[in-house]
Amino acid sequence: xxxxxxxxELFYTFNMIxxxxxxxxxxxxxxxxxxxLLQDLAIATYxxxxxxxxxxxxxxxxxxxxxxVLEINPLPSLSTEDVFGIAADHLKISYNRIVLDILDxxxxxxxx
Length: 112
Known about the structure:
By secondary structure, the protein is α+β, with helices and mostly antiparallel strands. It has 3 helices and 2 strands; from the N terminus they run H-E-E-H-H. The radius of gyration is 16 Å and the shape is globular.
């Protein structure tokens, strides 16, 4: 199988977060039907891998519109310099509130 090994800027790294060339768009400008399909795929992936409390599912959509799960990260970065803050902004809650909500879910699960 031949492939392009030097992915250069196509390979996402944490250093790219600080790049002026990277622009995050949240929510994604996609049709509601596709949004629901991606949400269902993320939830099914989360449940199939038996994650608890919080995780990040990375999904890519090809040129034909087919969605593919790249990975699930059961312990994604909570850094304010990462994309986590974008999710809090989109949900219109503070960074502290979303972290406390995650902790509350774990506390409830453990019956503490």
